[in-house]
Amino acid sequence: MRWSLGVIVWLSAVLTPLAAEERLTLAYSVTNLVFSSLLNELVEQYALPIDLVYVDNDEIKVTLLKAQQNEASPDILIMPNDHLGLNLSFRELPESWLQQSIEPYYLPYDLRTARLGVPVIGGNQLVLYFNKRFVESPINDFNELADVVGSFPEGVSSILWSVMEPFWFQPFYSINEASFFIAGRPDLDRPEMWRGLSNYRRLIEMSSIDLTCDYSCAFNGFAQGKAAYTINGEWAMQEFSALLGDDLGVVRLPSFEGHLLHPYYGSRVFAMPEKRPLSDKQKKMVQSLLEGMLSEEFQMALWRRAQLMPVHNGVASALDDPVYSSLADQVKQGNYMPQTPAMTVVWGSLNIGLQRFLLGVLDEKEAADFMQIMTNKTLNEQQRAKHNAG
Known about the structure:
Radius of gyration: 21 Å
Distance between the termini: 39 Å
Structural class: alpha/beta
Shape: globular
Order of helices and strands: HEHEHEHEEHEHEEHHEHEEEHHHHEHH
Largest sheet: 5 strands, mixed
Oligomer: single chain
Helix content: 40-55%
């Protein structure tokens, strides 16, 4: 219902004539109530005529594609950086906007050169949460889960996570910094994939986790004290903290059988769909909003109030917080999530292939072969469609 109401407000703001025709619409997919408050406070502080609309992160891709078809795209977006690879037209942003005081690991070469998005929130990575009621000292290696299964009170499982989702599989594939891409092309049918799938199945077996447990199941189970550990994004920290209080612990992802993991990380970027030209007044509004979001005050509040990771390098270096330091270290050793159209295709292939593998329909090699064939087929179809359209 929250998403449905958001879309109604968004479309109303876009399609209804406004008195001055200067108002802008900003859609964001950050599921964090404190962040929503911070964004509202910023708009009010700067007296900006901008309507803010929340869209659930699981729905934003489809929503944006439909909005573009209906010529009802929002003027501004705050969304995960990999969404820049969607088949959407984004406005090229001024080069000066990417020359802010932003940590360099949030500004990879392709983001700087394309100039389609400016990082405003960091992290967007998986971390390990634990409940201090059941865990005195968190595991250092996922292999240790085999030793603790069954040692918790009745009704409390060792760990929960969204098993079938490829984003949760990627860290266990990332040993030795294995990538889904070779020379910029998806390359899924190779020994690294066979090893990654085998590792993932072994982790599932040693933790005795239910394959049918999805994101909601894992989130609610941990929040209700039914699991000692969970793997979830840093985006969930504020909500977990509100629910568990002092019982909540959080650390970077442990190693797996002695191997360091390199999970994807990224940013939420400030981006603008390509649509009608902006007036000079609107351009100033947009720049004021971005400067406000990248200000030291706002960036400090991201962590201290919303428990979201800042991208401002002065703020990041000033934070004296062991939890932040641990998560920032994981970012530095992680892999920045690609924001190419091919990444979207890879996620789709991984989603189906991983499910078939875990359900026993395909073995490691068959699943890898299936995912590569599916990826190639989709990319070829997209290329033909693009050629025919041209």
